[in-house]
């Protein structure tokens, strides 16, 4: 697969991850003011005027001593030179030119790939003027003053960068591959679940060598299915970053939720469903994400023949009126139904992306409406003429009728149930709109 790759290199704390996040349009990497604490190496996808690209933030862990710096510079540059189509060499106008910048420049001189110097932290015009001193580095096609923080200058930079991109054959590399977010309260088994997937079969993760283990969105191929788990940063490297920065982990779950097609929400069987779980599920619903609930640690529960049924009923009662969500009883430890969990998430994705033809919809749903028409209001009859699925990202059905304002909530629910009865949509929120015709 061809893809346009931008690599960001530069000494610690110049703002590489800030720019990275801006380019991919999401806040994915963990940032901190203390130099060197920045997280795992990351990659992400972005686009500019219809051109897709991959960004690598080459910054990893940099520790204090000189030779480790050198090794780090070497690693970053090597990765950038090997993988990138365009290299962004970032410096800091606030701090000015430093010895480390010069070292980076020396390493970068070996490549003939296009390099741009990004003079970051140029938050104001006065600051932007300070970029002049970086001409002394003697490399780069051009210097762009940029503020990664407020975004100024990044458009001009991207305009220049994309002139080096291949024109054809480059599309969103993740298009059409389902994105799952694995969510749940602490200790329910999220990491164990994801790690088990990693272990099941070799993951292909990314097409970029060297970034595999640190990928933020990881591509998996498990049980013969290809999918992406959104935001798995830290999953395998817990010890390295003190991830109990609670704030970040909550933020990240929310981002992951927003980015995903399907949310795999894990509950702890020994604790039952709790208020926070219900909040998470309704948040997924509000964002119109597909939902699968896993009741994990099922191996720890004393079971009788009705256990799963009772458990499922309790869940559905607590999350009412949502009742279309599949519930799977798993144990990551004994590997029970983990396969089934992924299969179900795939099915939910397929349900979410299915398009029902207008003729099929009308064939099935108009008779349901005839059987139980909308109740008359103030002596007026509501007549639904036809139904069509709108070409939207999330399943939305338009009902064309004479008096759309007279359709009541209870009747909407009847229509939704009819659609679910005939066409599935298990695990997927659907929306009904009424239009005048
Ligand atoms: N004023 C200003 N501050 C910025 C800008 N971009 C980044 N910063 C700040 O600079 C600091 C370092 O930013 P990071 O993005 O973590 O830098 P990094 O180069 O990824 O750092 P390492 O991970 O240590 O290599 C943070 O406090 C950012 O908020 C900018 O455009 N203007
Ligand atoms: N018995 C049993 N234990 C499990 C199961 N899944 C996970 N665990 C254990 O539960 C504990 C928490 O698992 P993690 O995978 O770290 O949970 P997590 O949700 O990622 O936790 P946080 O990172 O704190 O949010 C570990 O001790 C696991 O071994 C399971 O299916 N059965």
From TrEMBL:
NCBIfam families: GTPase_EngA, small_GTP. GTPase that plays an essential role in the late steps of ribosome biogenesis. Keywords: GTP-binding, Nucleotide-binding, Repeat, Ribosome biogenesis. It comes from Pontibacter qinzhouensis. Residues 4-169, 178-353 form the EngA-type G domain. It holds the Pfam family KH_dom-like. GTP 1 binds at residues 10-17, 57-61, 120-123. One of its GO terms (molecular function) is GTP binding. CDD domains: EngA1 (cd01894), EngA2 (cd01895). Associates with the 50S ribosomal subunit. HAMAP family: GTPase_Der. It comes from the Bacteria. GTP 2 binds at residues 184-191, 231-235, 296-299. GO terms for biological process: ribosome biogenesis. Belongs to the TRAFAC class TrmE-Era-EngA-EngB-Septin-like GTPase superfamily. EngA (Der) GTPase family. This is GTPase Der.
